[in-house]
Specification:
The chain is elongated. The chain is mainly α. The chain is built from 24 helices and no strands. It is 73% helix and 0% strand.
Length: 356
C-alpha cells in the first residue's frame, strides 16, 4: 500500500474511534469498507496494521443502524480473508457482536455478512470454539431452515460457516442437538443451489463421524439426497466427499440396506472406472467396501458389474498423481473383493476369472 494511502487509512481509522461527528464516522466507515473490497491481500494486511480492526469492531458494537452494521461486518469479513488478520479480529472482540447480528432482529443482508465473516474466522480452531461459546451454532442451524425468511444467500453463508465449525467434535454435538440434520437433508434436495448442496453434504459427513449420528442422518431421509450427488454432474471433489459420507454412514448395519435401497450402488460402481480421479476411485471403493458388509448388498454390488473394475484397481500400476496413491487404492480394492467374496462361491469364482 502506498504511504499516502496508508496515511489516509490511519486518518479514517481515527474518525471511526468515536470522537468524530457521526457523518464523518459514516463516511470513514463507508470508505474503509469500499477500500477493503478493492485492494489486494497485502493491502488488507496493511489496513489491519493501520488499526482498522478495533475501530470496525467498535462500529459493529455501536448499534448505529443497518448501514453501519452492514459495512462493519462486510469490512471485517473481507479482512478475515487474510490469515494474518484472523486472530486480531477475534482478539478485538468481533465474535460476540457478529453472532448477535445473526438474530431475527437484523436485516437479511447483515445476517448474511455476519455469517460469512464468522465462517472465515472459524477456519482458526480457537475461533471455532469461541464462536460456538458465543452461541452461534443454534442460530446458524436455524438459518438453514427452508421456512426461514432469511433467504437463500443467508442459508448459503450459514451452511458454509458450519462447514468450518463442524470440524470440531464438541461443535458437532451442539449442531446435531440444535436440529441440523433434517435441515441439511432438505438443503441437499435437487432444488437447492449446487454450492449449498455441496456444503450441506460436507457438514453431514463431519457429523457422521459420530456413531450416534449415523442412524438419525438416515432416518431424516438424507441418504437419497446424498446419493444423487454422486452423479456425473457433480465435481470430483463432491463425489469424493459423498462417497466418504456413505462410507461413514455404512458403519451402521442399519444403514447399509438403506444406502443400497437409495440407489448408491450403480453410481459408486461407475466411479470406479478410469474416468474418475484416483481420489474418487478410492472413496467409491471404500464406500462399496462398507456397504458390502451386508451380504445382500455384496451380491447386488457384484451384479452391478463391480468385480472387473475393482480387480483392475487392485492390479493398478504405480504412477498415479492422485493424493491417496495407488498403494492405498490397491489395498481398499483388495478389501472390497474380500467382502464380495464372503457372499457366495459364485462371486469368488467371478473374482478369480477377472484376475485371470
Amino acid at each position: 500500500m502506498p504511504p499516502l494511502v496508508r496515511r489516509d487509512v490511519k486518518n479514517l481509522v481515527r474518525k471511526l474511534g468515536g470522537s468524530a461527528r457521526l457523518i464523518q464516522q459514516m463516511y470513514a466507515l463507508d470508505t474503509i469498507t469500499k477500500l477493503c473490497w478493492t485492494v489486494d491481500g497485502d493491502c488488507l494486511i496493511a489496513i489491519a496494521a493501520a488499526g482498522a480492526i478495533p475501530a470496525l469492531v467498535h462500529q459493529l458494537r455501536s448499534g448505529s443502524g443497518v448501514e453501519v452494521q452492514h459495512n462493519a461486518a462486510s469490512a471485517l469479513g473481507k479482512l478475515a480473508e487474510k490469515a494474518e488478520n484472523v486472530a486480531a479480529i477475534a482478539a478485538a472482540g468481533a465474535i460476540p457482536p457478529l453472532v448477535q447480528l445473526l438474530g431475527d432482529g437484523s436485516a437479511a443482508g447483515v445476517r448474511e455478512l455476519a455469517a460469512s465473516a464468522l465462517g472465515k474466522l472459524a477456519a482458526n480452531a480457537d475461533n471455532s470454539v469461541a464462536i460456538a461459546s458465543a452461541g452461534a451454532l443454534p442460530v446458524l442451524v436455524q438459518l438453514l431452515g427452508l421456512g426461514s425468511t432469511a433467504g437463500v444467500q443467508v442459508q448459503r453463508r450459514a451452511v458454509a460457516a458450519l462447514v468450518s465449525l463442524a470440524q470440531n467434535a464438541d461443535n458437532q454435538v451442539i449442531i446435531v442437538a440444535a436440529g441440523a440434520i433434517p435441515h441439511l437433508a432438505q438443503l441437499m434436495d435437487a432444488g437447492s443451489p449446487a454450492g449449498v448442496q455441496d456444503a450441506a453434504v460436507l457438514v453431514l459427513s463431519f457429523l457422521a463421524h459420530i456413531t450416534d449420528n449415523q442412524v438419525p442422518i438416515a432416518a431424516a431421509g438424507a441418504i437419497p439426497h446424498v446419493v444423487q450427488l454422486l452423479g456425473a454432474g457433480s465435481a470430483a471433489h463432491v463425489q469424493r466427499i459423498v462417497a466418504g459420507a456413505l462410507l461413514l454412514l455404512a458403519q451402521s448395519a442399519d444403514n447399509q440396506g438403506t444406502i443400497a435401497a437409495g440407489g448408491a450402488i450403480p453410481p459408486l460402481v461407475l466411479l470406479l472406472g478410469p474416468g474418475s480421479t484416483v481420489d474418487v476411485q478410492y472413496s467409491a471403493a471404500a464406500a462399496l467396501m462398507g456397504i458390502a458388509q451386508n451380504l445382500s448388498n455384496a451380491v447386488a454390488i457384484a451384479a452391478a458389474g463391480a468385480i472387473p473394475p475393482v480387480v483392475q484397481l487392485q492390479l493398478k500400476q504405480p504412477g498415479s498423481t492422485g493424493s491417496v496413491g495407488d498403494k492405498y487404492l490397491q489395498k481398499v480394492a483388495a478389501s472390497v473383493l474380500h467382502a464380495l467374496g464372503n457372499a457366495n462361491a459364485d462371486i469368488r469364482a467371478a473374482i478369480d476369472v477377472a484376475r485371470g
